[in-house]
Structures are given as structure tokens and as C-alpha cells.
Amino acid sequence: MNDIYEVIKVPNPVLKQTALAVEAVDQEIKDQITRMIATMYANSGVGLAANQVGILNRILVMDVTQNADGPGTPICMVNPEIIWASEERSLYQEGCLSLPQQFADIERPASVRISYLDENGAAQEMLTNADENLLLNHCVQHEMDHLDGALFSDYLSALKRNMMIKRVQKLEKNQHVL
Ligand code: NI
């Protein structure tokens, strides 16, 4: 299980699908988590959701602590749910491994409380706060969107979104020529 997954790019329809709740954090799920974390690091991503590797389980991984020296402490969430969101909003320029080299300022709740299961199946909660950790606040909400089949580009106008998808398709095509 040391292999990494291939990261799926737009417009693959799996990115628009809703992932299903995980019934038990068993060995198969743990192996998926391990491989997702390896895939995230191999692609220099800050976060990765299961849809992005073609798996429709509600699993996301993140590491907002990594830096040029290498990996930090990865976080895994199984079946994450937002149980509270602030009225206040925060703005952050987001990117996505499924939309390579595309970025846009995205507005989200500035603070959310999330319940989830960790990689051992234990119930956990996280409270994000944009003032303390803007990247974490946006990353976790961005990855949770993936599990519901939503991309950051869905917050943009149809015109901007379609331009982004076309740019990604052009990039991918050029990569295949090389
Ligand atoms: Ni993403």
C-alpha cells in the first residue's frame, strides 16, 4: 500500500458526486487514509478528499503544518460534519489539486465547529478560527465541499468556472504531449 493514487482533475464526473458515510474505520479505510496522505504529500497538496482519488468515502486528509523542510502533522477526518458555522466570513485565495494552477478568492464562514472520526475511529471535534489559522479554516471547508461534490470553482460565475476548466484541460493535454 505504499503506492499513491492518481489525482483526478476536472471535468471528471466523480468530482461532482457525493461521497458516502464510512460505516466503520476498518483496515481497508485505514489503508485508504495512509495512501491518501502519501498522495497529498507527493502532489505538494495541503489537503485531499477521497473523491479526488476516485473513492466515494467521506474521508479527507490535510496538513497545514508542512513547510519547505517537509511534512508536518497530517490530520485525517472521516465523516466530517459542520455542526456550527459563524456568521462572520473570511476570504482566502484557494487552489485545488483537481484544478491545477487555478486560484480564486473564496469567502467562507470565518469559524466552524466540525465533528468527525479520526483514523482510529474515535469521535473528535475541531473548532477553526480564521484569525488564528486562515489556511486551516479554508482547507477543511474546501475538502468537506469535495465530499459533497463541490469545488471552489462552484462559488464563481459560470463564465469564470468554465474558463478555469478549459485552462486545466489545456494544461493536461499539453502534459500528455510531453
Ligand atoms: Ni481541492
Features:
binds nickel (II) ion, 5-stranded antiparallel β-sheet, 178 residues, alpha+beta, two-stranded antiparallel sheet, globular, 28% helix, 7 strands
Concise structural overview:
With 178 residues, the chain is an alpha+beta fold. The chain contains three helices and seven strands, in the order αβββββββαα.
Explain what this protein looks like in three dimensions.
The two termini are 29 Å apart. The chain is an alpha+beta fold and 178 residues long. The chain contains 3 helices and 7 strands, in the order αβββββββαα. Strand 4 (89-96) and strand 5 (99-109) form a beta hairpin. A 5-stranded antiparallel sheet has the order 1-2-3-6-7. Strands 4-5 form a two-stranded antiparallel sheet. It has helices at residues 27-42, 134-147, 158-177; strands at 47-49, 59-62, 75-85, 89-96, 99-109, 112-117, 123-127. It binds nickel (II) ion. The site of nickel (II) ion has 5 residues, from helix 2.
Please specify the SSE layout and strand pairing.
Blueprint: H1 27-42, E1 47-49, E2 59-62, E3 75-85, E4 89-96, E5 99-109, E6 112-117, E7 123-127, H2 134-147, H3 158-177
Antiparallel strand pairs: 1-2, 2-3, 3-6, 4-5, 6-7
Bound molecules: nickel (II) ion.
